[in-house]
């Protein structure tokens, strides 16, 4: 369920999620990290140590963009981004927009070794993809689990900005905000760590060396500095688990379009519930009795007041599972059960 509506002050902001680092475009992203153990105080300021530990898990991804004519034949006309090693036998996580229209993928490890890459899985809704290379003995990154990320926490972004020759460049900053939604399906992390073209798909790590996010996008405009966003680690792990289990993200489908309140659209705290604006004919929602105008108060006793919260809630379920929805319909507060189907 994607958020509807335009960005606030969109005349002043340009949001770019690019397929690669090409002249005049800007993209970025970070990945969430897992923190389950206590770390000595000295290690909490050891940024050089963090970079040294994480860099072997960061790769550059290079390829030819989908161009035609003389532009395609130009050997220097390359697209590039960043990836994160997630399995030692050659599995790489990156942004879907990095590899979507990229041919002849080459993955370059921190020691300069080059491998031909194949995109095996792609999910544009979450902007994540998997790339496979014929390599063994790689160093997988450690993703944060059960980790409560905090505003003001120091983080480090590692990636391939501007040029492949600058691969494994690092920048440090802080977590500027959590639970952000920027016309996105799921929650994002905001950071002021310097992100540049080519950083997309690279890790955002905490000072324990754990990936907390995957760099994905940024705002670009005159007068705007260091306003970048990353896909949280829990979303990255959710998508990867589905990739390896089902070959795709096996999202539950119920077939009703939702609308959030004005306060939710502009990011204000609100308790106003979501409203159904349309029900697909023949969908699970229609079969369960839902109709346009119904107001959703909870799903299996969990309340949600924004589209992003609703989408986050759906990550708990699979097609075929049944949930109980508290809904106000025709002036009555009732409970309806709906069994999710598979996405068309």
Automatic annotation (TrEMBL):
Domain of life from the UniProt record: Bacteria
Signal peptide: 1-20
Coiled coil: none
Domain PDZ residue range list: 255-316
Swiss-Prot/TrEMBL keywords: Hydrolase, Protease, Serine protease, Signal
Gene3D superfamilies in the record: 2.30.42.10, Trypsin-like serine proteases
UniProt family annotation: Belongs to the peptidase S1C family.
The protein's name in its UniProt record: Trypsin-like peptidase domain-containing protein
Species name: Brevibacillus choshinensis
């Amino acid at each position: 369920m994607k958020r509807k509506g335009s960005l606030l002050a969109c005349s002043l902001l340009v949001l770019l999620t690019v397929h690669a680092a090409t002249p005049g475009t800007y993209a970025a992203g970070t990945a969430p990290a897992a923190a389950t153990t206590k770390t000595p105080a000295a290690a909490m300021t050891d940024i050089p140590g963090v970079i040294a530990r994480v860099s072997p898990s960061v790769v550059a991804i290079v390829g030819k963009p989908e161009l035609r004519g003389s532009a395609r034949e130009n050997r220097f006309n390359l697209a590039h981004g960043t990836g994160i090693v997630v399995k030692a036998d050659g599995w790489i996580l990156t942004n879907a927009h990095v590899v979507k229209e990229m041919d002849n993928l080459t993955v370059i490890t921190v020691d300069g070794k080059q491998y031909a890459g194949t995109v095996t899985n792609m999910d544009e809704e979450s902007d994540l993809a998997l790339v496979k290379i014929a390599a063994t003995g790689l160093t997988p990154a450690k993703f944060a689990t059960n980790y409560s990320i905090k505003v003001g926490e120091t983080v480090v972004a590692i990636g391939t900005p501007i040029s492949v020759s600058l691969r494994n460049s690092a920048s440090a900053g802080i977590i500027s905000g959590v639970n952000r939604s920027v016309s996105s399906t799921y929650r994002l992390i905001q950071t002021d760590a310097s992100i540049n073209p080519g950083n997309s798909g690279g890790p955002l790590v905490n000072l324990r060396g754990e990936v907390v996010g995957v760099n994905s996008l940024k705002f670009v405009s005159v007068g705007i500095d260091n306003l970048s966003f990353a896909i949280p680690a829990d979303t990255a792990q959710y998508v990867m688990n589905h990739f390896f289990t089902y070959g795709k993200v096996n999202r539950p489908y119920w077939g009703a379009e939702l609308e959030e309140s004005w306060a939710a659209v502009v990011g204000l705290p609100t308790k106003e519930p979501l409203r159904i604006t349309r029900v697909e004919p023949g969908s699970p929602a229609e079969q369960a009795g839902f109709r346009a105008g119904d107001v959703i108060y909870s799903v299996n006793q969990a309340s949600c007041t924004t589209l992003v919260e609703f989408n986050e809630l759906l990550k708990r379920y699979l097609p075929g599972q049944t949930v109980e929805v508290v809904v106000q319909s025709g002036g009555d507060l009732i409970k309806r059960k709906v069994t999710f189907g598979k996405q068309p």
